[in-house]
Amino acid sequence: MNKSTTAIVSLLVAAGLSGSEVHAAPWKVIDNANRSAQINPDAHGYMNAIMQYDYEPGQLYQVYGAPLRITDIQFEPGEYLTSEPVGGDAIRWILARTKSKINGIDQEHIYVKPTRPWLKTTLSINTNLRTYHIELTSYERTYMPAVSWNYEQYNMQQIRQETESSIEPKVNLSALNFQYRIKVQKGGKPSWMPVKVFDDGQKTFIQFPQAMLSNESPALFVLGRSGDIQLVNFRQKADYYIVDRLFDRAELIAGEKGRNIIRITKSR
């Protein structure tokens, strides 16, 4: 063992790893890491027949299918695939893509079906917002009709990191509210369609895709109770609009004669 390797091992041992852990065979390290990352269905995650996992990067989400049964993998409305999903067994597992709409926003779906039981493979999915790592297993009869994700904890982590790096230094993280609907009111879906809206009880934050930074920025108007348009003070920081107030309804308008209008509504 050369001096540099010895020094690295010494540092790892000093960090609390045992000698056996430091010198473990690569296959054992990989197997242990994969087992630790596996996330299985549990009763608390089910909403009717939909298993809703808590999203966290790097987890291996377990999805179980059966021949002649479809499993519907659902993504966050407004999230879209940037490439075709890639599976480890494209012959014995059948994949299909489609879209639905929720409040005028596209929602991506991937349908998965095995051709026989007792198969195992992996599936990797890249979107404009996240990467998903999935392990697929097939049984004779047991299958999951639908799988989706809950992003609340992930969003909280993202906001905390962005706050620390300073989107807004005084965000009240304990009061964050993500209950907003984003809907196409007029025109098609623009490249600047917001990906997230939330408030902290005092200010409202509208997050846009990175594409908005190099394109036309929409104007923001708050709608009064009678539908009248009100000007509102806001500022842009990176890919966020920060509004110094709360609102129930607002519209983002861009294009000649308001060609594109996006309605934001607070859920109650």
TrEMBL record:
<keyword id="KW-0732">Signal</keyword>
<protein>
    <submittedName>
        <fullName>P-type conjugative transfer protein TrbG</fullName>
    </submittedName>
</protein>
<dbReference type="InterPro" id="IPR033645">
    <property type="entry name" value="VirB9/CagX/TrbG_C"/>
</dbReference>
<dbReference type="Pfam" id="PF03524">
    <property type="entry name" value="CagX"/>
</dbReference>
<comment type="similarity">
    <text>Belongs to the TrbG/VirB9 family.</text>
</comment>
<keyword id="KW-0614">Plasmid</keyword>
<dbReference type="InterPro" id="IPR010258">
    <property type="entry name" value="Conjugal_tfr_TrbG/VirB9/CagX"/>
</dbReference>
<dbReference type="InterPro" id="IPR014142">
    <property type="entry name" value="TrbG_Ti"/>
</dbReference>
<feature type="signal peptide">
    <location>
        <begin position="1"/>
        <end position="24"/>
    </location>
</feature>
<dbReference type="InterPro" id="IPR038161">
    <property type="entry name" value="VirB9/CagX/TrbG_C_sf"/>
</dbReference>
